[in-house]
UniProtKB/TrEMBL annotation:
It comes from Peltaster fructicola. It comes from the Eukaryota. The lineage of its organism: Eukaryota, Fungi, Dikarya, Ascomycota, Pezizomycotina. Residues 47-81 are annotated as: Disordered. This is Uncharacterized protein.
């Protein structure tokens, strides 16, 4: 857990960064003491960066695989140890069974010192993987959940639902320590294609359910920097077929969000036609669930260009089967690496986002870093066409999205919305 301290009178923590799964050595008492002063919380989901004292399971798998430099020792030693480890690695499970750790406790005194160190290091990794994804050491506030067992057979994933419920309760208790946060950021390291349900998606589902159950009345901003295609699927809380049943408080939590930041890995190069159609539907449902409340939307595609979030209904996979999303309260829109910008400016915004006063687009070649939204030099202000007046002399914003734009109004030249570099962040209409 990392923290930034900003105070003139004392060590008051404003920004906190934690990872899921959490490592050992953290205590909920510490979170309760500093959580009330925290305003921004960042949760990293996925592969944890390796540290000098502990290896990640990925590096552990590389070291113990058959192609690794660490091959089966030639000394006289217990071969069941290596067989058990390799069998555990072949089972794509989120935890390793206790039998594997017991096997790792066999007598290794006959092995060389180097091999002994390798086995002991691997044993520590295995012991850490047995614990629950949200293991943060013994806490007097919440009991530690029992180990969760996830097994993979053919094309079916079997999850211990009781342990899943305990994990949700556990993370709900953790997030309850941050009752005053106004910004929640997820940094997700998932596979960019369509891998199906993996441990990353499982942890995201747990976190989403915990956010929906925790009391976070001040939460106004949610950021995903970045998120992958399957992350959209599991984070979708509204609509038919949403993963995990949302409680009654879910609507109140997500409808309280007024600022949404999304950096999404474009998966189209890895999907077939059916998967493309499904992804577009999931993205459409997720965005539409915020359309009635969000005032600022900052949206960037990673890897390659993708569709505009305010013109998503124009995409071929869902064209004709989805109506336009009406962004009733949207005032600020940032678009990065999106297609159909001309259609977005001339048609989608006037008709479906009439309250937009500020539009920014990302400069070419930018947007591949998590801090792209903080780098204002990478963005260009776009001058929107003037608002046409209807027959009563009122503009489109005062009437609402259902107004029909008068076709007799003179249309500005095509280049009227080109960037105006003279506008600054001190402009009253700047968002």
């Amino acid at each position: 857990m990392n923290a930034e301290s900003t105070s003139e009178t004392g060590p008051i923590f404003r920004k906190l960064y934690i990872t899921a799964p959490l490592g050992r050595g953290h205590n909920l008492d510490d979170l309760q003491r500093i959580g009330l002063t925290c305003s921004e919380l960042t949760i990293g989901v996925g592969q944890v960066e390796p540290s000098p004292t502990r290896e990640t399971p990925r590096s552990w798998r590389r070291r113990l695989s058959s192609s690794s430099r660490l091959s089966q020792p030639q000394e006289r030693g217990p071969s069941p140890l290596w067989d058990t480890v390799r069998n555990a690695l072949r089972r794509r499970s989120s935890v390793v069974s206790e039998d594997a750790v017991n096997a790792a406790s066999l007598d290794i005194s006959q092995l060389s010192p180097r091999t002994t160190r390798e086995i002991r290091s691997s044993r520590e990794i295995m012991a850490g993987m047995i614990s629950m994804d949200c293991d943060i050491s013994t806490s007097p506030v919440l009991p530690m959940p029992e180990p969760l067992t996830i097994t993979t057979t053919a094309d079916q994933r079997v999850v211990d639902t009781d342990a899943e419920g305990r994990a949700i309760d556990y993370w709900t208790g953790i997030l309850a320590c941050f009752g005053n946060i106004n910004t929640l950021t997820f940094r997700v390291k998932g596979e960019t294609g369509w891998p199906g349900s993996t441990n990353v998606e499982y942890v995201l589902t747990i976190l989403r359910c915990a956010v929906e159950r925790a009391q976070l009345p001040n939460l106004k901003r949610v950021r995903f920097q970045p998120l992958h295609a399957m992350g959209i699927v599991v984070m979708r809380w509204h609509g038919f077929g949403a993963i995990a049943q949302a409680p009654a408080t879910a609507y109140r939590v997500w409808q309280n969000i007024t600022r949404l930041d999304l950096q999404i890995h474009n998966p189209m190069a890895h999907l077939n036609d059916a998967q493309k159609r499904l992804f577009h539907k999931m993205l459409y449902d997720y965005l539409s669930s915020f359309a009635g409340t969000v005032k600022q939307l900052r949206f960037v595609w990673l890897d390659e260009d993708g569709p505009s979030p305010v013109a998503l209904e124009q995409e071929a996979p869902i064209s004709g089967i989805r109506d336009p999303i009406h962004w009733i309260k949207l005032e600020g829109l940032w678009l990065g690496n999106t297609t159909k910008l001309d259609y977005t400016v001339r048609t989608s915004i006037p008709r479906h986002a009439p309250s937009v006063r500020s539009l920014k687009t990302l400069r070419a070649g930018q947007g591949q870093t998590p801090d792209v939204f903080e780098d204002h030099m990478s963005w260009v202000e776009v001058v929107l066409p003037p608002e046409p007046l209807n027959r009563y002399g009122r503009d489109r914003a005062s009437q609402g999205w259902w107004d029909v734009i008068d076709t007799d109004v003179h249309e500005e030249p095509r280049d009227s919305y080109l960037a105006d570099s003279t506008r600054s962040s001190r402009d009253p209409d700047y968002i």
